[in-house]
Amino acid sequence: MIGHKFMFSTGIENSYPTIVGPDGRTVRIDQMEKCRHYQNMELDFHLCKDTCIDFLRWGPPYYKTHTAPGQYDWSYSDEALAKMRALGITPIVDLCHFGVPDWLGNFQNPDFPKHFAEYARAFAERYPDLDLYTPVNEIFITAMFSAQYGWWNERLSSDRAFVTAIKHLCQANVLAMHAILQVQPNATFIQSESSEYFHPIRPEVQGLANFLNQKRFLALDLTYGYPIRVVMFEYLLENGMTREEIRWFEQNQVKARCVMGTDYYATNEHLVMPNGTWQAAGDIFGYYVIAHQYYNRYKLPMMHTETNRAHDSDDWLWRQWANLHRLKQDGVPILGFTWYSLTHQMDWHVALREEQNHVHPVGLFDLDRNILPVGKAYKRLIQQWGPVLDDERYGTIYR
């Protein structure tokens, strides 16, 4: 699996879900286009190196690359990977980030998993030297936003649609891992999953909070073949999943090749309200407590794969790092840390639900590629802590 070097990383924000615009037409929200990455690709990679970042969460736009069954356009990937190799940047390859090609429709399509696995294999065959992958990014969020909240892609709002989406996404994730391993047997899979928690605001919603705190684990439970508990087992069966499909995940997991990537934002903790809805709670527990919950469940090496904040970002960076460092001192095998993303993003203040073209200021650099205070702070953090974390004696002398 991964070598000894601690992975300080950032990401090229590459979301591309579809939404319905104000005129009723389907609109593709391509963050790499909106954040001007395509026209600044070489500069963006140089900015990573200038900030002492050697690992980059990056992926080609799936909807542009997989043009039809068995047909691919590798032009962007060829150019991007050549530039990264020249600079010594190691990509963590993100193959599906919130959307699919038009010809596949959406995540309700039962053919999506097999076509995605074919794509993953074709990618691995074209770039056999790559060995770090995130096959499907944030499965739980993808299924919630597309099939429970009705915001993206299929824009459905039901438990049955959610279960269908998460089933297909997890099948695609597992099949892709198998396909990649056939080509690159040394591959390591760094899941990037949102680490969530639901706080009951009153005693009468404790039951709903308990249910949601089990539901948050579904994407990883299925991916890792973790035994599904009774309440979730019944929920899956009631909403269209079969016992055979659940058992398939237990029989096909490749957990031994996985690193559990956990994403954490101030919006990841929720207050469950008396009317059955929930809203952002801020960092009540924080990454330290919630990451421990995920580690205690799966006992896998971990990586902090996403965090950012639009205001007080220097303070937020330090607080997330302090949480991660305490986890390492506790003996939790944390392999990396990520500020996401390299540049500011667009429209994430409304979760990409609307095309407002509003700058979401969370990057290490602004969209004119000027470094920001948080970018300078992250560079200092890497310079100061990198040599310490790469010291083989870390586990004994820094606790």
Automatic annotation (TrEMBL):
Identify the stretch annotated as signal peptide in this record: none
* InterPro entries, sorted: GH, Glyco_hydro_1, Glycosyl_Hydrolase_39
| A UniProt-annotated Pfam family | Glyco_hydro_1
- Which PANTHER family does the entry link to? ALPHA-L-IDURONIDASE (PTHR12631), BETA-XYLOSIDASE-LIKE PROTEIN-RELATED (PTHR12631:SF10)
Protein known as: Family 1 glycosylhydrolase
